[in-house]
Design goal:
mainly alpha
């Protein structure tokens, strides 16, 4: 089917690249209200959204077409193979690396690493695809990255300050314990003004030495986690940029619906198979426990039968438990029909509309320009926090917004021109 052009292919691509993060921010806002409270894992959400969105992409590809009319024979072993590689790098491996980096480093350091994505994409586009950007577009890219990074960094600081304020309003147990210790010292006449040095026993000296060794070991472990976290963050940047590169290079002639169908369909199948394998593993472990119990020489045959029946029956329960315990990381959480409706609406924004616009933009404009414009999600987040949560932006956030908007204007003016 012939691609629909509203203004021009370049202008349409720029508009699509800017609209994609808006829908993603809306979806994240919905997920934050529902998925967080469900105690569902990131793996389960990724599995659900990939498979649901794949159905929608298949429907749209059937309606709008799998390839553009001026192209034929675009679905080759090579093109589909590299799109599945793009899916593996950008969706499966990339998400795992990003979440691991977030766990090891925290949001601030991950924000710093993510700021490298536009530059990595631009460099790959220059040397692999031959896309030469105008020199001014590099400055616009830098302004956009600095502005978005400032907004995201300051937003994380504000969230941390809110947590501290809550803790100040509700004193922790450690504060109560500290007050108790001070009261105990005062009752025993141990005032700070007396400057009395307590006599330490041999056991206390040994305990202090062990604590020092423990702190040194903990510091070394933290340093290793810090290095491992940055390795994961940088690998995530390279995986995402590479995924976008292969999509742009081997998705030529395909519609955005068919590109996303291949990418999310493959990822959804892989994640679903992992979930099935983990469920079968749990069932096998439960069955092994039954066999080991029987081999242990339990004399009552009735106990054997009842134990086997109960254990196998419990292992065959693939749905999350409803006794209030959290679901396993490979299981979907237990939600009401209204809850699943909210999650599905979030999938429509984050995993359907946003990728459809992003991949359309990716095929219309330069790789670096597309990734740069697609990174302005935190700017929309500021607007939503102000509108829905009443959280007014700080001066630093506003400065970041101005810088990012200035960078976007430069990118729109010069990013579509080659040198």
């Amino acid at each position: 089917m012939m691609a629909v052009t509203v203004f021009s292919s370049t202008v349409d691509g720029v508009i699509a690249a800017l609209l994609g993060p808006l829908f993603m921010s809306l979806g994240f806002f919905i997920w934050d209200l529902r998925w967080t409270s469900s105690h569902g894992s990131a793996f389960a959400l990724n599995m659900y959204k990939c498979n649901v969105a794949s159905v929608w992409f298949a429907i749209m590809a059937g309606i709008r077409g799998f390839s553009q009319s001026e192209f034929s024979g675009v679905f080759t072993v090579t093109s589909v193979g590299f799109l599945t590689l793009s899916s593996t790098l950008g969706i499966i491996i990339g998400d795992v690396l990003w979440l691991e980096a977030l766990r090891l480093l925290g949001a601030k350091h991950v924000i710093v690493a993510d700021s490298l994505k536009p530059f990595a994409a631009a460099i790959l586009g220059r040397y692999v695809l031959g896309e030469a950007l105008h020199p001014a577009s590099w400055g616009g890219m830098a302004l956009t990255v600095i502005g978005v990074g400032t907004v995201a960094w300051e937003g994380h600081n504000n969230m941390s300050d809110d947590d501290v304020t809550k803790n100040d309003k509700n004193p922790s147990i450690s504060d109560e314990n500290a007050q108790t210790v001070c009261d105990s010292h005062n009752r025993n006449g141990m005032h700070s003004s007396e400057n009395q040095q307590p006599q330490l026993t041999l056991d206390e000296l040994l305990s202090n030495s062990e604590n020092q060794i423990h702190k040194s070991d903990q510091k070394q472990r933290n340093l290793k986690e810090y290095h491992r976290g940055y390795v994961c963050a940088v690998m995530n940047v390279l995986a995402d940029a590479s995924g976008s590169l292969w999509t742009k290079k081997y998705g030529v002639g395909m519609t955005t619906w068919s590109i996303n169908l291949v990418r999310f369909g493959f990822a959804g199948i892989v994640l679903f198979l992992v979930s099935i394998i983990m469920r079968l593993r749990r069932w096998c472990l439960a069955l092994d426990n039954v066999i080991e119990t029987q081999d242990a020489g339990v004399s009552d045959a009735t106990v054997h039968v009842n134990s086997a029946d109960n254990t196998v029956h419990s292992s065959q329960q693939t749905a999350p438990s409803t006794d209030g315990s959290d679901p396993k990381w490979f299981e979907l959480p237990s939600l009401t029909r209204h809850g699943w409706l909210q999650i599905t609406i979030g999938v429509a924004f984050v995993t359907f509309l946003c990728p459809a616009l992003e991949k359309f933009a990716l095929m219309q404009v330069a790789l670096g320009l597309s990734v740069s414009l697609g990174s302005v999600g935190p700017l929309y987040g500021v607007l939503m926090d102000w509108s829905f949560k009443g959280r007014k932006p700080t001066i630093i956030v506003l400065i970041g917004v101005v810088l990012a908007i200035g960078g976007v204007i430069i990118l729109c003016a010069f990013g579509t021109q080659s040198i």
